[in-house]
Description:
Layout: E1 3-5, E2 8-13, H1 15-21, E3 30-32, H2 40-45, H3 51-63, H4 69-79, E4 86-88, E5 93-97, H5 107-121, E6 129-134, H6 138-147, E7 153-160, H7 166-173, E8 179-184, H8 188-199, H9 202-205, E9 209-211, H10 218-232, E10 241-247, H11 252-262, E11 269-274, H12 279-286, H13 310-316, H14 321-327, E12 328-332, H15 335-349, H16 355-370, E13 375-381, H17 389-396, H18 404-411, E14 417-419, H19 423-432
Parallel strand pairs: 5-13, 6-7, 6-9, 7-8, 8-14, 10-11, 10-13, 11-12
Antiparallel strand pairs: 1-2, 1-3, 4-5
Bound molecules: pyridoxal-5'-phosphate.
Amino acid sequence: MKLYSTNNRERIYSLEHAVLKGIAPDGGLFMPVTIPELPSRFFAELPTLGFQEICYEVAKRLLVDDIPEQHLLNIIENSITFPAPLVELTPEINVLELWHGPSLAFKDFGAQFMARIMSYFNRDQQKSLNILVATSGDTGGAVAAGFHQVEGINVIILFPKGKVSALQEKQLTTFGNNVTAIEIDGTFDDCQSLVKKAFNDSRLTDKLRLTSANSINISRLIPQSFYYFESVKHLIPSPDQIVVSVPSGNFGNLTAGLFARKMGLPISQFIAATNINDIVPRYLDDGDFIPRASIETLSNAMDVGNPSNFSRMLELYGSTWNKMRGDIKGYSYDDTQTLQAIRHIYRQYNYIADPHSAVAFLGLSEYLNNTSSSSKGIFLETAHPSKFKSTIDLALEIDSEIHPVLLEISLKEGEKTCLSTDYADLLEYLLDQ
Ligand SMILES: *Cc1c(COP(=O)(O)O)cnc(C)c1O
């Protein structure tokens, strides 16, 4: 896969460069020069293929020039280790459960795959690779789980003291081994600025091989396209149009869906479902992209005021607003509607949806109510509901069950290093490693 920067189409980068750097030197996002279409033979066989077989077939077409087939097979076998089941609520409304990974969120797909791709590109190095990340919550858990015990890689996670939930802190601090959690006596912004300083400090970068596990890394996006194939395989062949509703914040998940469609997957319509942070639905409505400060909501992983993957979406549509709004319909919902949807899904279908998927359900329902074409819909469930237990309990007036994985983590003792916001402290700590 050859890549260019969304800020400059002229310069071409290798996959290895894009994966290890994360972001282009001009500040743009890496974008594949071409996204190959899969042969019709593949789509004819798709309903009969297993998840790992599908991942391999798709990955092979994208990464054939970068990673030998046997290695790619290993990477898939070691990263796609949990299923992505499609659960039918009605023949028109299906949930794609993306939370069967170790941190119970869809971000596990990206993190597991990225860890193994990085490990592959690091294979001939004597020195281990150090991943330095700042996290405000959910991403850190997926990254820690993804890189845990991956050969040749150390992970150092900075998180703000008292700003992540007790459970989220356990998700960062209970791995041990190659995963180190550092609590910074400051805010998330302090953590991020410390990480930035470290990357720009030659005293460190001369001595340590440092890289980031940023959410915009192309190797997190690629595996997210796999589960679109995995879910649509259950609905084809079909005379109906297939509609997929994606609960969105930074729009990585939806962009991966657009990649899948570009590879030939028959999805007629995407729904961009957001909470009141509705920058993209507004753009689809009137053509103006106006980032603003994010607003806190119950679906907090989507509280994003300047969606980072929007520039990739523009690239896919050659910046043509009319084309994009044909393929993607935008809808947004507030917290009251989200709570009502959680209640409705529970009463109507006896299914507990997390707040993010409830927003996606609302988008799908609104679209299905307004279209005359015969459709089959999928909405994505991006996290297990018990990660948001207090919201579920509030909506349903029950004491909902906690997922056993979360119970187990809550009983473990965590380990962390505590540092101030003074960069000198972090520098000393890292140089001592
Ligand atoms: C990160 C996240 C999202 C948003 O995904 P994007 O790719 O940023 O649009 C939605 N739901 C959950 C639970 C998440 O953790």
